[in-house]
Every structure is written in structure tokens, then in C-alpha cells.
Amino acid sequence: MAKAKATSFFCKECGYESAKWNGQCPACKAWNSFVEAPTVKEEKGAGRVSLGTRSPGQLPVPKTLSEIETGEESRYSTGFSELDNVLGGGIVPASLILVGGDPGIGKSTLLLQVCRNLSADGRGVLYISGEESLRQIKLRAQRVGEFTENLGFLAETNLDTISEILKERWPQVAVIDSIQTVYREDVESAPGSVSQVRESTNVLLQLAKGLGITIFIVGHVTKEGAVAGPRMLEHMVDTVLYFEGDKSASYRVLRGVKNRFGSTNEIGVFEMCSEGLVQVPNPSEYMISGHESGSSGSVITCAVEGSRPMLLEVQALVCRTNFGMPRRTAAGTDYNRVNLLMAVLEKRVGLKLSECDAYVNIAGGLRLSEPSLDLGIALAISSSYRDIPVSDRTLVFGEVGLSGEVRAVRQAQQRVNEAVKMGFDTCILPRGNLRGLENRGDIRLVGVSNVAEAIRALAGDEK
Ligand code: TYD
Ligand code: MG
User: Fold this and answer.
1) CB 371 within 8 A of CB 399
2) What was the pLDDT predicted at 223?
3) Of the given ranges (53-67, 233-247, 396-410, 442-456), which has the lowest mean pLDDT?
4) Is the CB–ligand 1 distance for residue 189 below 6 Å?
5) In angstroms, what is the span from residue 145 Cα to ligand 1's centroid?
6) 420: left (phi > 0), else alpha (psi -120 to 50), else beta?
């Protein structure tokens, strides 16, 4: 009888390897995430990443910091300042960057445009697609604009071929679209499986560090099926960016989730147009552009994502429930947080919300759960409940505690500055933030210490 093939079980979420099947992954605690895959047959040492250079047989000598050469500051721009920001100031040579996101969100389009910008700056770029034919790429490229000759395209999925070509052509930047379509011949499982994705990334990591090529890897986020999610790649790459947004809306947010060369949580905002992605340099204006003044239940608040303040519209609709069990929904923010704020409004302010349905929405489809949005959500609910509109020249922010107190939040100055810049005339904020705040415009700053006071401050507005 033929000997059974050597297989192992891998967690689809984090890549944890185990000899037997587990219901729950011991490493990342995901349930039902184990799949069986052949283990990789490897010659000794193959697939291991060497981050330095050394001749065989010679042991590396540890170096002190002063002995390590970094070269001059060599970051360069992607041609999109929004993307440069998220990367921490441009592309770091020889880095491995994972761009994740739902299918159809615009990853290929973004990277094609980045390739175009880089090649227009005279850099050698190779765009390798395993998902689209060269003809399809050309059709997309024609929508996006003019291309120079520095940019090569390749439709290829065999990683051994790709790696030969990268060694020979030696571009400065390469794009692999997507990691789920490439495969290594010596790994027996299908493209997109856990072991293929992991081993392929290993090869790309070696190429990036060994040859000094910056490689962008596209990864689709998929929860089930045989396709491995890019979650387990996060450990291996230098930078992880997620491209998100409401597919039905045209804006897209690029979020830095991990960055070895800069801060995380920075975001970049783009809009998908008929000629590809366009940067949105002033997201506040964009996010509140649909705001209708004079309707109740709508409040403008300010979130700080990374280092950037952004105005948002919180909408609430509160109406009497027809059933014994009130319905509540929260789109774009934490459902439990909304329930908690409603309980605070009921108990501390006396609104009879337990008899009401409530629907809360962050307009524009952004997903946020910053505590500073609390006061905006609470005031939107109270405004809808009492059917009294809030002035559209009033900005509200603050964290709400369980006893109804309004707590100070970080980066209050930035939020106030953004309100001044956008022409607001009143800002309702935590009293704890008032001290030390510099008022650079003629905005009226109203410090409040609890929710009831905030509601009274709004009522004073309307007089
Ligand atoms: P794509 O980049 O193919 O997504 P991904 O690589 O993340 O799967 O984006 C495809 C979507 O973008 C598709 O719905 C069409 C739309 N699109 C535009 O609206 N304008 C454009 O100029 C391009 C190229 C695509
Ligand atoms: Mg694509």
C-alpha cells in the first residue's frame, strides 16, 4: 500500500500548524478554522528567510547600531499623498506591503495607478497579475490614464517563474495581484490554500529583502472556503493596509493596520470615479456634504483617525415601537455602545426610549467606534426623540460615561481647529477639555459636564 502523504492541519486565520484537527485554534482562538493541507517538502534551509548577506560557512558577526548603515533617507512618494501618509511618509525600499480588502473594492485599480505614478517618476515597475489577462489590464489602464514605458505587465501565476523574472528584470517596485492566485510548484496544495499562501509569501519576502525590491501583495479578505484569508500574512509583511468602504458609495478608505516604518491607524480617503481613484484631500467636507439642515436627529461630530480629524454626520431615527420588543440598529458604529447610550439617556435624562425603536447611522458608511462619538450619538437620539433639529453650524464631541457624565477626549484642540476651519460657530465639548484649549477663531466653545447639560446647551442654541 502506498504510504499516505504527509499532511498537517493549519488554521485558516492565523496559519497555526498542528498535527491534529482542532475545533478552536489554540493560537488565535478562531472556531472551526482548521483545514488539512500537505506539509511542504523542503531541502534543508530552503524557504528560510535570510535578512542579511553572508558567505556560506561563515558565521554572521553581530553589529552595533553605529556600524549599521541605513543609507540616506530613501523613501519615495507613490504619487498619492493620501497613500504616502498611510505608509508613514512614502515607500520604504525593500519592504513588503500587503493590501487587503473585499473583492471589487478597488485594490487592483489603486495599485495600477500607483505603478503608473512610480513609472512616470522614472522607476522600474512590474505589475504581475494572476487574476486578469493582459487585455483586461490594458482596458483598465486605458480608463486610468497615460502610461510610460517603464512599466511592465505580466500575467503569471507560477511563483518560480515570477521570481526568475524579478531577479532578471530587477524592478524597484513589483505588484503581485493577488497572493491567492500564485503558487509554488513544490507545494502540493492548490493556489489560495493556507500552505501555498504562506510559502509564496515567504518567497516574496526573500525576494524583497534579498534584492531590495518593494513588493505590494494584494490579498482578498475571505472568511470561508478554501481560500486563505490574508490575516496570517500580517505577521510576515512589513506593512498591512486595508482598503475598505461601502461598495455602493463611491468613497474608499485606506487604513494602515500594521506598519513597521510609521504609525498605524492613519487613513487615506479616496473616491472611485470613472477614471480610477481620486484622492479626497478634505474628507470632512466630503463626509458632511449630504447633510440636510433643519431635520431632527442629525448631529455633526468629529472623529480623529490616526492624526487626522474628520467631521462626520451622526443620524438617528427614533419612533414609537409597534411591538413589545423595540428594534434597534446601529450602522457604522458599535451596536452595544448605542444601547448603552440609550440606557443612559433613559435613566439620566428621563427620555422614555424603552418604548421606542431607534436606528443610528454614521452617514457615508464609515465604520468607527471612537468614544468621542458618544455625545454626538446621544444628542442625535435625543434630537430625534424630541423632534427638535440641531443647528448645522454646531459641532459636538465627547465621551459619555455610565452616570451620564461627559468625559474629556484626546486631541480636542485638533477637533476644535477642524470645526473652525469648516466654519462652525458653536462647539459643544467636554468641560474637562476646555482648559488649555486655544480658541483660534470666533467659535463659541460650550463646555458641558453631563448629557442633560449638553441637551440644554443645544436648546439654548435655538433661541
Ligand atoms: P478593482 O480594482 O478591480 O477591485 P479589486 O482589485 O479590489 O477586486 O475594482 C473594481 C471596481 O472598481 C469595479 O466595480 C469597477 C470600479 N471602477 C471604477 O468605478 N472606475 C474605474 O476607473 C475603474 C478602473 C474601476
Ligand atoms: Mg483585483
Assistant:
1) yes
2) 53
3) 53-67
4) no
5) 14
6) alpha
Q: Is the CB of 130 under 6 A from ligand 1?
A: no
Tens of pLDDT, residue by residue over 159-174, are 999 999 999 999 999 9
**pLDDT of 175 over the 60 cut:** yes
Decide which of 3.30.230.10, 2.60.40.720, 3.40.50.150, 3.90.226.10 is the CATH code for 286-458: 3.30.230.10
Main-chain phi, psi angles of 298, to 5 degrees? -125, 130
Cα–Cα distance for residue pair 156/224, rounded to 1 Å: 25
Q: Grid coordinates standing for 11?
A: 488554521
- For residue 373, what pLDDT is reported? 94
Say which CATH architecture domain 75-281 belongs to.
Answer: 3-Layer(aba) Sandwich (3.40)
C-alpha to C-alpha distance for 313 and 300, rounded to whole angstroms:
5
Q: Is 105 in the pocket of ligand 1 (CB under 6 A)?
A: yes
Domain extents in the chain: 1-43, 75-281, 286-458
Which atom of ligand 1 is least distant from the CA of 144?
Answer: 22
* DSSP letters spanning 354-418: GGEEEEEEETTS-----GGGHHHHHHHHHHHHHT-PPPTTEEE--EE-TTSBEEP-TTHHHHHHH
At 394-448, the pLDDT tens digits run: 999 999 999 999 999 999 999 999 999 888 999 999 999 998 888 777 899 999 9
6 and 151 Cβ atoms separated by less than 8 Å: no
**DSSP secondary structure code for residue 265 in this structure:** S
The per-residue pLDDT for range 262-298, each reduced to its tens digit, is 887 788 989 999 999 999 888 888 888 877 878 899 9
- Cβ–ligand 1 contact at 328 (below 6 Å): no
101 lines ligand 1 (CB under 6 A): yes
Task: Determine the distance separating the centroid of ligand 2 and the alpha carbon of 182, expressed in angstroms.
Answer: 13
